[in-house]
Specification:
alpha+beta, 6-stranded antiparallel β-sheet, 4-stranded antiparallel β-sheet, 15 helices, globular
């Protein structure tokens, strides 16, 4: 059973290298939206909300709810409206519209505030399916046929992610903990037996270090070469669900974030004036944020180049790093600021394995009891990431050992790809050979009169990852 799980994890891991689980990126979201019609915008700016063009005009989105310019909540989206939204977003007519609570691709808890969801299939060659929030009318996920197919061979088996299990988060977490834990025990015991059967000095016939032949030799040698990495990989997968909440972190408090922002009364805006600025032209989304008591308007476009205006003067703003450093003291008020670094390239914690991150960025380290680090955008002053010592350790124990996203590898592709293929193939050999050995053992007839101790020995031989052909090490198999 252990080898079956490992084989599934290794082979599905190869697929996951190139086909991630379906998600809607910010760039995809913006590309599907129409530009904001500033002539229809009126009223006061909504704090902590996003302005974007809806089906019937601009709307404010906040925490899974939508409000029209009048301030009234938008009624739940109908099937006809969902079809129209999806058709405009995906540039194709809708062929099917279904109201669902969840399915394989929307089982995660991040979609809870948008449920139920409209699942809209578009008449396109790539089989595009869009999921529309019934509460806001916004597209929250897109998937294409090829992506769904490969995920059935990748993320779904790798994460043990069938909908019926994953919708029960506590149960799913326990399944991952126990299956990974059993695999760790199996791998460690197999490694120990493999080391005991290895001979480096008084070698077996022909100078071999292994007494086995055929599949057993493959299993033994591959286990000796990759066993340590295999155990580290399984342990890191076990840590992915944070057993006993060892790596749980509260992060920055809401009070500290509020003190850093220094929010006041939202400014009164002349929307026609806002819409006439170069920064607002063609914008798909706009939001108001506060940084050190300064209100800022952030305009987002599909190109990824956000424009920023001072909300009071409607002029471009440039935040001074020294000002941000002074304001950052309020994020961890009772601690000494240990260092403030201006990063022009990624570090071990501010990076993306695939894609890019905002650079330059301001990294501030505090000498508090949690050893907190904060990454701040110099363009907007937003806190992009905060990490304490626990989360940084988790980065190495999970991301580092499970994804191998070390800078020397991910920045020099295809070096990372070559390493991952070699490592995953070695792991697949270990697990598949173990399956073959186990199946052969199960297929052998046994004496019905065998004692209880004898049966226990057979069972141990079946489960042992590298069971030898003979009963004693003193009589090794010498055939090639």
């Amino acid at each position: 059973m252990t080898c079956l799980l490992l084989a599934m994890w290794f082979l599905s891991g190869i697929v996951m290298m190139y086909v991630p689980f379906p998600s809607l990126t910010q760039q995809e979201r913006l590309a599907g939206l129409a530009p904001i019609d500033w002539k229809q915008v009126h009223g006061s700016v909504q704090a902590d909300a996003v302005l974007q063009q809806g089906l019937d005009g601009p709307v404010w989105l906040h925490d899974g709810a939508a409000a029209a310019m009048s301030g009234r909540a938008i009624a739940p989206v109908t099937a006809r409206q969902a079809g129209g939204i999806a058709a405009a977003f995906g540039k194709a007519p809708a062929s099917a519209v279904d109201l669902i609570e969840r399915d394989q691709w929307t089982v995660g808890s991040g979609f809870n505030r948008y449920r139920p969801l409209w699942k809209v299939t578009l008449d396109r060659p790539d089989g595009l399916v869009l999921y529309i929030a019934s509460t806001t009318g916004t597209v929250v996920l897109d998937t294409i046929r090829a992506e769904r197919f490969w995920n059935w061979l990748g993320s779904v088996p790798h994460w043990i992610y069938p909908t019926v299990l994953r919708q029960d988060q506590p149960l799913w977490r326990q399944v991952i903990l126990w299956t990974s834990g059993a695999s760790i025990i199996g791998a460690v015991s197999g490694m120990w037996i493999g080391v005991l059967r290895m001979r480096l000095r008084r070698r077996y016939k022909g100078g071999r270090i292994s007494p086995y032949r055929g599949w057993q030799r493959w299993h033994h040698v591959a286990g000796l070469l990759g066993g340590t990495l295999l155990v580290a990989w399984i342990v890191s997968g076990w840590l992915s669900v944070d057993p006993n909440r060892w790596f749980a972190s509260k992060g920055l408090s809401d009070a500290a974030r509020a003190a850093y922002a220094g929010a006041g009364m939202p400014p009164a805006l002349d929307w026609q004036h806002v819409g006439s600025t170069p920064e607002a032209a063609g914008a798909r989304q706009m939001r108001l944020i506060w940084t050190d008591s300064t209100p800022l308007l952030i305009f987002s476009r599909p190109s990824g180049q956000d424009a920023i205006l001072d909300a009071r003067s409607l002029k471009p703003v440039k935040l001074e790093p020294r000002r941000l450093i002074r304001a950052a003291h309020r994020l961890v008020p009772d601690a000494r600021m240990e260092a403030a670094d201006w990063l022009t390239k990624s570090d071990a914690y501010w990076y993306e394995a695939k894609g890019s991150v905002e650079l330059p960025v301001l990294r501030i380290r505090f000498a508090d009891m949690n050893d907190s680090w904060v990454y701040i955008s110099p363009r907007t002053g937003e806190v992009l990431r905060d990490m304490d010592a626990r989360r940084r350790l988790y980065r190495w124990l999970f991301d580092g050992l499970h994804r191998w996203d070390f800078d020397v590898l991910i920045r020099q592709r295809p070096l990372w790809d070559i390493w991952m293929w070699v490592w995953l193939i070695v792991g697949a050999i270990i697990s598949v050979s173990g399956i073959v050995i186990g199946m052969r053992r199960l297929g052998r007839p046994t004496d019905r009169r065998m004692s209880g101790i004898g049966r226990a020995c057979v069972i141990r031989a079946i489960w042992s990852p590298i069971a030898p052909e003979q009963n004693t090490p003193s009589q090794p198999t010498d055939n090639a």
